[in-house]
Amino acid sequence: MDDKYYMKMALDLARKGEGYTSPNPMVGAIVVRKGKIVGKGYHQAAGEVHAEVNAIDDAGSSAKEATLYVNLEPCNHTGRTPPCTDKIIAAGINRVVMAMEDPNPGVKGGGKHYLESLGIHTTLGVCKDEAEKLNEIFIKFVTTKRPFSIIKCGATLDGRIATKTGDSKWVTSEASRNFVHRLRHALDAIMVGINTVERDDPSLTTRLADDLGNVKGHDPTRIILDTTLRISENAKVLRLNSDSDTIIISGNSVPTDKRTRLEKRGVRVIESQVTNGRIDLDILMDLLGNMGMTSLLIEGGSRVIASALSAGIAEKIIFFFAPKILGGDDGVPICKGKGASTMKNCIPVKDIRVRRFGDDVMIEGYIDK
Q1: Distance between CA 359 and CA 364 in Å, rounded?
Q2: Contact 112/98 with Cβ under 8 angstroms?
Q3: Angle 84-91/51-59 helices, nearest 10 degrees?
Q4: How wide is the angle at C-alpha 173 spanned by C-alphas 247 and 181, nearest 5°?
Q5: What amino acid positions are annotated as catalytic residues?
Q6: Are 223 and 239 in contact (CB under 8 A)?
Q7: Predicted local confidence at residue 79, as pLDDT
Q8: What is the pLDDT of residues 189-237, one digit of tens each?
Q9: I need a surface site. Which of 37, 129, 248, 267 has the fewest CB within 10 A?
Q10: 3-class DSSP assignment, residue 288
């Protein structure tokens, strides 16, 4: 077996931590001695021990003179847990294979160089592209201190997310919606505008399907853009039994009494800058980053999606198209407002991936900035 084979196993282990490790990365580790896997582990949740420690503990005494495969450079600093390099050295590991360096500017290369200084052989770059994609959220956040943002929508083949009456249940299939709940589980926060709250009265929580083993999904922090704080106090999103917060982003001229009532119910109301009558999303990204939010799912509606694209805050799009045709121009479009005047000025999307969920087609890609 070669290094790539074992690294792919480490990457598969790392994915088990999806939805639980933020703000930490997803990391998996494999210990191999004389061609035999003797230990496995992954980072299970933020604040818990790292993947390398779990894998070495699993290997026990067999870790001596073994090779450790890990998809991210081992840490050489003390955070909420001790340095993984100390564990590697104490276990007698004699080679460490890494997919990528730690992208954090303050620690990048430190673990690799420290291990090498003590005579431990290292190999870097095995399955690097896969590792960077797996932890694209972590990379964006530690290098910019802003959340990695994904725009998601579900539309008919002729590009409408709701009918003229506002009916949107359901545009896409149950299989597509289950995938969206997995997205919610994986990300820190979900954002919609006040129009979506008024029209759909959503809960914005995570409901994982049975095929995921009935595990309890992670509810993302719910963010509602509501410049004037006009949200109904009976809205479902304000009446949830959830471990995650509901945050309303408002302007700085909102009714004091209503704000007080909402805050007494545990809702956070945060003032942010308003530009041309709408929350300035570029400034909001800095605010969310300062709050420690590493990722954001932008679910709409039309004006929020258009504003996010215009502000250039999104890294990725996930658009679902259902095999339905509205058949008119009076429904709700994916984006509302002014668009590009020429095709050459449209927003380009690269690295396209297409998937099927039943008869729905999902198009995933990255904004080419």
Answers
A1: 16
A2: yes
A3: 20
A4: 35
A5: 52
A6: no
A7: 67
A8: 999 999 999 999 999 999 886 554 545 678 999 999 999 999 999 999 9
A9: 129
A10: helix
Copy the structure tokens of residue 282: 């570029």
Is 88 in contact with 58 (CB distance < 8 Å)? no
- Taking each helix axis from N to C end, the angle separating 3-14 and 51-59, rounded to the nearest 10 degrees, works out to 120
Beta strands of 290-340 (E only): which ranges? Answer: 295-300, 316-321, 332-333
Query: For tokens 């505008």, what's the residue?
Result: 193
Beta carbons of 183 and 172 less than 8 angstroms apart: no
Task: Please state, in angstroms and rounded to a whole number, the distance separating the CA atoms of residues 36 and 66.
Answer: 10
Give the whole-angstrom CA distance, residue 261 versus residue 22: 31
The total of other beta-carbon atoms located within 10 Å of residue 361's CB is: 17
What SS3 state is found at 332? strand
What is the separation of C-alpha 317 from the centre of its chain, rounded to a whole number of angstroms?
12
Give kind and range of the element (H or E) at residue 37. strand 36-42
What tokens does 41 get? 């582990």
The candidate with the shortest Cα–Cα distance to 11, out of 97, 127, 104, 148, is 127
Following CA atoms 275, 224, 179, 339 in sequence, which dihedral angle do they give, to the nearest 10 degrees?
A: -20
Q: Record the pTM.
A: 0.92
Q: What is the mean pLDDT of each run of 10 residues along the chain (369 residues)?
A: 93 95 96 96 94 96 96 84 89 96 81 92 97 97 97 96 90 94 95 94 83 68 96 93 92 91 94 92 97 95 95 97 95 93 96 96 96
- Are 269 and 248 in contact by the 8 Å Cβ rule? The answer is yes
